[in-house]
Amino acid sequence: MKLKLPMTMMDFFIKSEGVWFSQRTVHHFDSAQDESGESNLIVKVLTKDDPKVIEVCELQKINPALATGGASFNWQDNLDNDEEPNPNYAAILVDLPNPETGRTGKFLRNRGYIEGIPVVDRYHFASDGVLTIDTEYERNQGQERCWFLTNDFRVRVSTVRMMNGVNLMAYCSERRCITRKELEEIVQKNAARSLGNTVDSEVMRHEH
Fold this sequence. Notes:
By secondary structure, this protein is α+β, with helices and mostly antiparallel strands.
């Protein structure tokens, strides 16, 4: 399938919906702390009338009518665990695009990645589809860039700047996971194809 680059935040949310296997490398400049590792990222698209979207808008005193929708991002260490994902590792994002272009705007987040407080991010999409997100926290600044290399593989690079300079840099590569339902459908299609090939072979054998 040909890669179609998302150029609006809602298109980006829709393209990101699903389960991703994330591998991250983190470098701290001021300590030996290592946050590198692997996890699963679960993304769900939210409509503009979703109660979670309205709640985030009201929390930050924004008219919910300005929102086009949103998404929930949830991190889980192990997908083999049947327990519900920990809500402490979840974030709700609400899109507030610039109506003139749609390629720039702001989104509200009920909790920041660096500081666990509500924040407002500014974003823009470059002509090559690279999404840049800038976040102002109380004590530092964050910037993240994300882009799709294929429909099922994307890359994220982020930095956090403290008052005295860059504090950390992180690189994440994320691969879309196949759900059990999708895997079952693939197995069924392959089984049907194999059966069809077997029948064709038998017919040809008898004809000769």
